[in-house]
What does this fold into?
Amino acid sequence: MKEKLLTSLESLQIELHDALKDVESPQGLQEARVLFLGKKGKLTQILKGLGKLDAKDRPQVGAKANEIKENLEEIFDAAELRLQAQVYEQAIAKDLFDISLPGRPIVQGHVHPLTQIYELATQTLEKIGFQTYSGPEIEDDYHNFEALNIPEDHPARDLQDTFYLPGLKWLLRTHTSTVQIHVMEQNEAPIRMIAPGVVYRADSDVTHTPMFHQIEGLWIDQKTTFADLKGVLTLFIQEIFDQKTQVRFRPSYFPFTEPSAELDISCVFCQGKKKNCAICKGTGWLEILGCGMVDPAVFKYVKYDEEKYTGFAFGIGLERLAMLKFGINDLRLFFENDYRFLEQF
Amino acid sequence: MKISLNWIREWIKIDASAEEIAEKLSMSGLEVEALEKLGAGLDQVVTAEILSKEKHPNADRLSVCEVSNGQENIRLVCGAQNMKAGDKVALAVPGVTLPNGLTLKETEIRKVKSLGMLCSESELGLAEESSGIMILPEETPLGIPLNEALGLNDEILEINVTPNRGDCLSVLGIAREIAANFSLLLQKKLPSYDQQNSNLEGQKSSDSIRVQLESDEACRRYCGRIIRGVKISESPQWMQARLAASGIRSINNVVDASNYIMLEYGQPLHAFDLAKIGGAEIKIRSAKSGETLRTLEGKELQLKPENLVIADAAHPMALAGVMGGEDSGVSEATRDLFLESAYFEASGIRKTSRAFAMQTESSYRFERSTDPEICVAALRALSDLILKIAGGQADSKIIDLYPKPVQKSQITLRASRVQKILGFAFSAQQIQTLLEPLQIETQVRGEELLCEVPSFRSDLTREIDLIEEVARLYGYQNIPTTYPELDLKTLTNSKPKEKDLAIQSLRQTLLSWGFSELIHYSFTSPKLLQQFEQSYAAEQVLANPISEELSVMRPSLLPQMVQTLQKNIHKSSNQLKFFEMRRVYHFRQVEGEDRPFEESLHLCLGMTGDFHEPYFAEKNQAVSFLDLKSYLLEIAQKFGKKIRLIKNNSIPSFFMPTRYAEILMRNSQLGQVGELHPRVLKDLDLAQSLVVAEINLDLVLTETKNKIEFKKLSPYPSIFRDLNLIVDEKVTCEEVSRLIKQKGGSHLLGFYLFDLYRGEPIDQSKKALTFRLEYASNERTLTDDEVNEARENLLKILNDKLGASLR
It folds into this structure.
């Protein structure tokens, strides 16, 4: 009796293997599960004989029955996984998805290239230790000219065609240097300020727009020197372009700085290697900013001790920077607001 | 300023190439903007003479010429008609490449061999167009390179002379700079004149003219000389060529000579017709009110007392230092001359030249200060030149009125100060060596130098001016590159400012919503402002605009936004979202405040097209007022501000009246938002709607309280109920919402409008609004009953107050 039961239990496994061979659907699998493990299933049928066994044989057969049950369940689970995998495979086989179709468009706005340069330059200078200030665009003669050592009837006024408002008392600032004066009027040294902003000159042709942007910088302390100016501006230029960019300082003239300099950088397009380079005209150098040591006359206007303090100032044209950085060939594009231009940035 | 290098080489002997000289000048502060090689490509073309000209045997329009280059005779075929035997011509032979790129070959034209070509001006690159071949002056020697024959074997430096360096506006000045930079000495000496021992060649002084210097402040020195019996004619070719290279037009030999000497010495000079000087008297005086002067250019000037004039006994003859008068100028009939060489104060000349908007070669130099000590030398050089090219006899005497000689600047320069400014130590001796080539005389006293500045360097008056010269001569490139010492404590206040951060953050938000940034000019057209009903004060219209289109400092960003949307729709895209975040300007006179202008930061948004980019055939919706409203509310919320959109009685007529709102923040006006009126769209030739808004961003960004207050998350589930209301059309969504918010009960967590329906079976005067309500409690799970009760109560109130019924 005991042997018979054990044999029946053993053979259940083989029976199940055979039974599942042809099963191809979840329903077939479910039917087989009922047939073997259901309330009236084969395992239950066999176990009905358990009651007729000797009490001493029951534990051994019972243990075997549990083992077989677990085995059967494993077989069912494996079959189910196999079937499920088939279902996926069929679904995949039927899926005609074309990954090359376009996705739903995501529209991101575009930052104006001048703003990008403005932020890049501002952030770079802030890292170096400058603090950002702003000032009015509609100015008086004093802040735009006089306090910057450009008195009435100074030929340097010719360099800047000024827009005036009616009555000629007020004008549109021709440079951001005006902010230097405002900041020095309101603060004691040391000063490390930058002033990015819009400026205006009555000039309009292929290479001039009547409105453009500058960043002004001013660094004043007791030991600030021309050698420091060279250091700080070289650092700035190499941060903005790259470390390989060469700089050179060339004597120049601005009424509010002395000594004054133009800063040239090695041509970012040809590195001075092309004789016919349209950007540097074969010179290998590009003029990029004006700078110099603050003229003592300016210190007099703002009542700084000109013997104690020295400082340097600089002014950068942002349009020029943006043109070099992005390879833009026409200045006027900045203000035409053509979306085909804007969406490239 | 354009200047001939050959001319400069008359003053200094220098082997360096034009490129080396240009580089050195640029690096010492005289920026060479261009280096032009005259007659490039003309050196292979030679001068020749036509010996004979015959008709071509096989062609009516061609001729066969025999020409000589001085060494051999050449037969060639020529198609031009304008030459004859004996003419001097420009000859190119096979193998020569012309400036236009053509390389000549031996050819045969209708069975006649042609061994060369006679060139036209256009083929030589000397003219845009030309008819016939170039005929050279009779006296041209044979067989010399054409560039030489034309005086074109020269290099022209175009130098950007900064306003402080008036002394460099001449050949002499540039030669001095080159000499200083290359450690050379000037070759040519200035002509001298000793007043006491005047023994110049010439006629005995005839004392026929009396010069009175009345304004000796405005005119520090006045020199003159008489030349009699000149013959006015054309200038010699070499002089015309040099003047042309400097951009000065040739007039006649006397005028050209004074321009020539001005270019060479930097001293402006003027020649009067002696016969036209009334009363044989010259006065340097202020103009009298009511006096007029007709200039050489034929312009009639109304003079004022602040203008300095050169007058005869009765009338002004010239505007001193600016321009001569027509009546006293040199004409073909002129026989006798009075030559003027003076030193005028810079600021007076500038005032006058500005007042009459006349800038001449002369005023340009006087404004930048000339050399008071060169007046006589220049005058002598001019008279010598005139005698040479126009004949005549000069008076032996030079008139020289110089009552108060200009003192040379004496400056003390401290070596320690040089170091403090430049960051590099120089000894007093080193400084002395650097300044010497500039003709600055120095005496070393310990660490100080006593410096005497030459008379031509009027720009050097202060210690700092000399420090710049030290740096310049030493070479900026040789000054070390260092980093400033920085006190870390002072760095703490260099944080970016709150407002700058807010602006950056807002820009990022707008970008993520798909808005692209615009930058318009700050000035715009009055017409455009009028079209969009933006008022502005007359005080914000530029006095000297570039054009009317760019004349008003804009009081609003909106008109240009509309214009740019329109332009882009017409040009490329009808799906656009733009923003501009810039200043606007208002004239506002506030008592006690000096500045009558207000500059405030505005934000303008503009949208057009479908809300989503088109995607296959998916249903899409055009952007509307409501989309822009959402963005505005979101922006306000970002900065912790509450804004309200209200209907307004005064709706600008360019807006669609039903789709317009004024934006309020704490009851003050913040801006406006709306869709454009169909009439305006039609005027703009647009078939799609535009939605625009503008707000004052300064108001939004002041006192931003962006403090986030965290609310605890409820562990209990929410219960949702829909409220499907029918209300009168007149009842607004806002009215219903406000009531729901107030009366929804303590457990109402939130709600939103879920659907809006008009149409059957609902009455025409009504609409259906469906809200979804969310109830929850922080303490427990709510029961259906209490939620239902809350909803019933709300419904009752809605019914009472707004006549709402359940659908």
About this structure: Chain A has a mean pLDDT of 91.
